[in-house]
Write a structure and sequence with these properties.
Structural class: alpha/beta
Helix content: 25-40%
Oligomer: single chain
Shape: globular
Largest sheet: 7 strands, mixed
Number of strands: 21
Number of helices: 14
Strand order of the largest sheet: 4-3-1-21-18-13-14
Distance between the termini: 38 Å
Strand content: 15-25%
Radius of gyration: 26 Å
Length: 611
């Protein structure tokens, strides 16, 4: 299923060409990985160049200050006005929470696509204290379009920034009532967990918006929803492929074509025909009184076979879909039942389904907790929704498990916060994340003790009480404040022109196999491999190419370089937009990681057809 997201993304691009759209708008998470493989980036660039470059005349007049809109780009110019490029369909994109900027230089995969000229990357923030959202202003005929974009920000931080009036959304100085305003956002749409700041309410957004394109959420909602508070319509396009095995991914996938005439618009949904069939079902061993494991095995097989038959019937109506379906059976069992081995069960379906090792999802029935201590919640299918997290555990969570196994407890640091900081260090190359969090936690603890401690008090007990009384919201803000500090330091280094190449060190890992050849890359190391030399040897000669040195071949080391609403409208010029949420997949010899993204197309055409 590694090609599923590329196939679906190509179908969306083909729809854009066939519908003669004027532009494409991506709402984040074009890539599912913060550091997508070279294969994934290459395929994404190839598809975008194949379908979005050409001699198609572009009739969009770009009006806003491009240096403001694309201020983080080395080429602050919309790509179809670049004399070196021949763009037929411009693509505009914000980043999501999976492909967000990270590392010492704050780059992401979209920066690579932007530098290559295949997309126009906007909505990137460079301040952790306040955010200013400036629109992309465009015009075609009598229709004026303003596109506001805000790339993914931690929900807790953005929620607080909205409440404290630290998010400023600017408007055009002239003819404000004549602009059709679209806001593209990539945040939690609904509350998750216990934290009140874990999502962004729709009414936080400005009340002069006409349409809000909401990324991040995977379930496709093809019908517009109206928010009466801000008097705006909301579209949640969802993902174009199943990037998780959750129930919400079973909904039909669509892309959308949006036509705009002055302040009126019309939305047309286009079903995707290349999406792999996905069947999700719930059964209960308790209600069906299945007694032993042998009968449980047969009982689950019966239901899986029935689900496969349903998937085959779905594919008969959609011959372009992949042959093998995705099957997910969640079964509820009691504490006395031993869960079925998923790998053993999947052997029976090796050539019948696309996910033989992930067919079964055991769900232990929760028992009423009579203890005074709060119960530990077990994971649900929504909490384990990514293919990645079903097979790999958070690095920070592994460290916590090791401490618990040794009966050790952290008295100052919070487990959840340390997990987030550790994952940022490993996955997003935030080299200062762990150190900054520990320093911040120590400072907070010292301030608490100074205020709450008297002469003769037991400091250890005071520290324990402090951690026990901290609420979930305070714990969430704990790591957010630390993240704010290290991001601010990174931005200060960039402002001073300091280049930090530590991400280059960690990006080249000799312990990993080369993705295309399956062999180890030569001439690169991390300081711990054979023949690399010690850290003290850097700057001198080396046969393997240490930092700052020249290799034996005489070249520098690869690591040493630095009236709102849908209405039947007028004839003539109008905006036509296709909106979808698409996914690209990461293909690697080591793992198969699907990418997910929110994609939107905007097209400006001339037509004599109405809506």
């Amino acid at each position: 299923r590694g090609e599923d997201s590329f196939v679906a993304f190509e179908e969306i691009l083909q729809h854009a060409v066939a519908q003669k759209v004027d532009m494409i708008l991506l709402g984040g998470d074009l890539f599912h990985d913060n550091r997508p493989s070279r294969t994934t980036v290459h395929k994404a660039t190839t598809l975008l160049r194949k379908y979005c470059f050409g001699d198609n005349p572009i009739q969009i007049e770009f009006l806003s200050d491009q240096k403001t809109n694309f201020h983080t780009s080395y080429f602050p110019c919309v790509n179809y006005e670049d004399p070196n490029l021949n763009v037929g369909i411009p693509v505009f994109s914000i980043h999501g929470n999976h492909d967000d900027p990270a590392g010492p230089q704050g780059l992401c995969a979209l920066d690579l696509l932007s530098a290559s000229g295949v997309i126009n990357y906007f909505g990137k923030t460079t301040s952790v204290d306040e955010i200013t959202v400036s629109p992309l202003l465009m015009r075609k005929g009598p229709t004026k379009l303003a596109i506001y974009g805000l790339g993914s920000v931690r929900d807790e931080r953005l929620h607080r920034m909205f409440l404290s009036k630290k998010v400023k959304v600017t408007q055009p100085e002239q003819y404000r009532d004549e602009w059709f305003n679209i806001f593209v956002i990539h945040q939690n749409h609904v509350k998750r967990g216990t934290a009140a700041t874990s999502y962004i309410p729709e009414d936080f957004l400005p009340d002069f918006m006409d349409l809000i394109v909401w990324g991040h959420e995977h379930d496709c909602k093809p019908e517009l929803e109206h928010n009466d508070i801000i008097n705006a319509y909301v579209l949640q396009p969802g993902s174009s492929v199943a990037t998780s095995l959750s129930e919400g991914e079973t909904l039909p996938k669509h892309c959308f074509k949006l036509k705009i005439w002055k302040k009126n618009f019309c939305l047309n949904k286009i079903p995707l025909s290349t999406v792999r069939p996905f069947i999700f079902k719930d059964v209960s061993l308790i209600e069906n009184e299945v007694p032993d494991n042998r009968e449980i095995f047969a009982f689950l097989q019966y239901h899986v076979d029935e689900m496969i038959e349903r998937a085959v019937q779905q594919r008969e109506n959609n011959p372009n879909a992949p042959e093998l379906p995705l099957i997910r059976l969640r079964y509820e069992f009691s504490g006395n039942t031993i869960p079925i081995n998923r790998t053993r069960f999947g052997v029976e379906y090796l050539h019948k389904v696309a996910n033989p090792n992930d067919i079964l999802l055991p769900n232990k029935k929760r028992e009423v907790n009579t203890d005074s201590k709060p119960s530990v919640k077990t994971g649900t299918q929504d909490e384990m929704n990514d293919f990645d997290t079903q097979t790999n555990t958070s690095r920070g969570a592994l460290a916590i498990d090791i401490l618990k196994a040794d009966n050790k407890e952290m008295k100052i640091l919070f487990e959840r916060s340390l997990c987030i900081a550790s994952d940022d260090f490993v996955e997003k190359l935030e080299n200062d994340s762990v150190n900054e969090y520990i320093d911040f936690a120590m400072e907070q603890c010292e301030e608490y003790l100074k205020k709450k401690t008297k002469l003769g008090d037991d400091l250890t007990e005071k520290v324990r009480v402090r951690k026990a009384v901290m609420s979930k919201n305070e714990e969430a803000s704990d790591v957010e404040e630390a993240r704010k500090r290290w991001e601010k330091r990174r931005l200060e280094r960039e402002a001073r022109g300091e280049v930090d190449d530590r991400d280059d060190d960690r990006d080249s890992d000799p312990g990993l196999l080369d993705e295309e050849s399956g062999t180890q890359p030569k001439g690169r190391g991390k300081g711990r491999g054979r023949g690399r030399g010690t850290r003290a040897a850097r700057g001198g000669s080396s046969t393997r190419g240490t930092r700052g040195a020249k290799s034996a071949r005489g070249t520098k080391s690869a690591r040493g370089s630095k009236a709102k609403g849908p209405q039947k409208g007028s004839l003539g010029d109008y905006f036509s937009a296709s909106v979808s949420q698409s996914s690209l997949s990461r293909v690697s010899s080591r793992s198969n990681k699907n990418t997910k993204n929110t994609a939107s197309y905007l097209d400006i055409t001339d037509s004599e057809d109405g809506f």
